[in-house]
């Protein structure tokens, strides 16, 4: 899953859709806490983001791999490959749902962190103008840096999710051979996450 390597560098640049802890149960606290920081974003942007969140949470999750037909994981734990339902037993469906949960949680949190970053960028421009007229450029810089540090910390927590996601993907590949060609995430995705994160400073 090489796209994960692009996530840290882009999280704070724009709202995204698809990348804590190592628990096998996805944590939803990051998205909620960051979403609270986006109250100043325009209504239209919020509506668009809410619609995208619903699509991710309620729609099929697309999985791709080189030279493989498109695969999808449905909200009820079915694996579709090239539009056809792959036979799976109850244990395999549980693995599909667990893996899907990690993908959904990371995608939603990535969107929220990206939105918070976009808001920070907009606020930074306004604060800079205020600083020019008020002469308090140092105070403005401190406020912006403090907000940027909060978002950076949230982005790092997303990276902390990746070990659990990798373990879930590997378990699914073992349980359901049809999924194995799509299990392209590896340890380097975990190790590289966050190395190129760029935050306004």
Topology:
Blueprint: H1 7-10, H2 29-35, H3 43-58, E1 61-63, E2 71-73, E3 79-81, E4 84-85, H4 90-134, H5 137-159, H6 162-175, H7 187-192
Antiparallel strand pairs: 1-2, 2-3, 3-4
Helix pairs in contact: 2-4, 3-4, 4-5, 4-6
Description of the molecule:
- The protein has 201 residues and is mainly α.
- The chain has one domain.
- The chain has seven helices and four strands, in the order αααββββαααα.
- The protein has helices spanning 7-10, 29-35, 43-58, 90-134, 137-159, 162-175, 187-192, and strands at residues 61-63, 71-73, 79-81, 84-85.
- A four-stranded antiparallel sheet has the order 1-2-3-4.
- Strand 2 (71-73) and strand 3 form a beta hairpin.
- It is elongated.
- Residues 1-40 have low confidence and may be disordered.
What percentage of residues falls in helices of 4 or more residues? 55-70%
Which band does the percent of strand residues land in?
5-15%
- Main sheet summary: 4 strands, antiparallel
Mean pLDDT: 74
Give a count of the beta strands, DSSP E runs of length 2 or more: 4
The number of domains: 1
Which descriptor suits the 3D outline? Answer: elongated
Biggest sheet, strands in spatial order? Answer: 1-2-3-4
Please state the structural category: mainly alpha
Order of helices and strands: HHHEEEEHHHH
Span between termini: 30 Å
Determine Rg (CA atoms, Å): 19 Å
Number of helices: 7
């Amino acid at each position: 899953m090489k796209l994960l390597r692009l996530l840290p560098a882009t999280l704070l640049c724009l709202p995204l859709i698809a990348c804590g802890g190592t628990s096998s149960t996805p944590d939803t606290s990051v998205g909620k806490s960051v979403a609270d920081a986006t109250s100043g974003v325009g209504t239209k942007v919020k509506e668009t983001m809410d619609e995208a969140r619903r699509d991710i949470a309620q729609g099929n999750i697309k999985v791709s791999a080189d030279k493989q037909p498109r695969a999808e994981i449905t909200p009820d734990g079915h694996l579709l490959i090239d539009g056809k339902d792959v036979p799976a037993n109850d244990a395999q469906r549980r693995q599909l749902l667990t893996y899907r949960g990690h993908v959904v949680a990371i995608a939603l949190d990535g969107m929220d962190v990206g939105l918070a970053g976009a808001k920070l960028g907009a606020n930074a421009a306004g604060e800079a103008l205020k600083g020019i007229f008020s002469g308090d450029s140092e105070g403005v810089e401190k406020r912006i840096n403090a907000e940027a540090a909060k978002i950076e910390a949230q982005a790092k927590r997303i990276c902390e999710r990746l070990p659990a996601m990798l373990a879930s993907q590997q378990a699914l590949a073992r349980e359901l051979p049809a999924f194995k060609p799509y299990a392209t995430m590896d340890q380097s995705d975990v190790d590289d996450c966050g190395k190129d994160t760029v935050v306004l400073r």
